[in-house]
Amino acid sequence: MSDHSPGFLALVAQARARVAEIDAADLADALAREPDAALIDVREESEYAAGHVTGAEHLGKGVIERDIEARHPDPQQPLYLYCGGGYRSALAADALRTMGYARVVSVDGGWRALRELLPTDGT
After folding, report:
1. Which residue numbers delimit the Rhodanese domain (predicted)?
2. I need a labelling partner for 22 at 20 to 30 A (CA). Which of 47, 87, 90, 118 fits?
3. Is the dihedral of CA 121, 9, 95, 30 positive or negative?
4. 82: Cβ–Cβ under 8 A, 6 or more apart, which residues?
């Protein structure tokens, strides 16, 4: 995306090389196959309030490392993370992977794609 700086894009590319990703179009099927999976919106609180995937939990990228163990103590639980387009979720997924979460997946395409594919809440 042209509005992102080269340094940020390089950081995201490095994270993406280390984390699992799923295309937004495949998320509903993945969640149906894994009923214990959590869908986590890592965008800012204002973005989440403006609209989010129905049933998604908000845990912003700025606090996810601090709060994940209290909310999801099992490092084997499948966690699907999304943001606006798949950049911040890749960075957050990489951090959780480093913390020992083995089944964390970043949703490529993020909210921009998911809002056309899944039921949503918010304005």
Report:
1. 33-123
2. 47
3. positive
4. 24, 27, 39, 40, 41, 42, 43, 53, 56, 89, 106, 107, 110, 111, 114
What domain count does the chain have? Answer: 1
Q: Is residue 7 part of a domain?
A: no
- Among residues 22, 24, 42, 83, the one annotated as catalytic is 83
Instruction: Tell me, yes or no, if 71 is annotated catalytic.
Output: no
